[in-house]
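Researcher: Predict the fold of 4-hydroxy-tetrahydrodipicolinate synthase.
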Amino acid sequence: MFSGSIVAIVTPMRTDGSVDDDALDRLVDFHVDNGTNGIVAVGTTGESPTLSVEEHIGVIRRIVLRAAKRLPVIAGTGANSTSEAIELTELAKEAGADACLLVTPYYNKPTQEGLYQHYRKIAETVDIPLVLYNVPSRTCCDIKPETVERLAAIPNIVGLKEAPTLERNRELLARVGGRIALFSGDDPVACESILAGYQGVISVTANVAPRQVRAVVDAALAGRREEARRLDAGLQQLHKALFVETNPIPVKWAAARLGLIPDGIRLPLVALSRQHYETVIDGLRSAGIAFA
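Model: Structure tokens for 4-hydroxy-tetrahydrodipicolinate synthase follow.
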């Protein structure tokens, strides 16, 4: 259903923190023009924790309208409350999203059975394709491969975004490969994950280097291993630079330098520290991205 280079899109904000709808429209067009295969709206990179429900759904609706079926839109609707996740997922469906991305419940640390029941309840309540999202470094909650395997039997659970290790890759591919789509949630290892059998990446780097990320993904999906690794090597410095501070601080700063968005970001996140400016600029240049 979904594959390729999918951008975890930033939410453009003015310097006062308000959402900039006009910049969001331009950003969607930028990704359509540059070959991005899909958009994840209001994920972590889209600052979902600090958007109100009204803003959250408003951004999804705006992206859906602007995308106009030119590429699929996957809405971030995860929460650490099952009832809240259901509400957001229902609203995203009404807004026209093609699927929803649901992060594992954070902070309250459910058991594996709790995770299974959480996702099963959402899937049975809202008839829309669902992509599971596992990022233990942020949530302190790890959905294990055996739980993913149980959930893969539910018809509208269609994918998993995972920040994989090689060991986790092997186990997931053995358990659910070919049954649900697997997406790398970690740009530095996305190429190797796709070469191993994943269907694509949900990418931070694609915010500022959409053509370059798409080229790596296309080569990897086609099995052109040497080409994929050569192209990927040219992005590794940028991948690293975009995480010198908490995501999405560096990528929003980089996108603003490219003229894609204003400089706004919401507390408790703040603008990129001056000491990292050259690191991010060097990362952009290393990927062949020119800017004034």
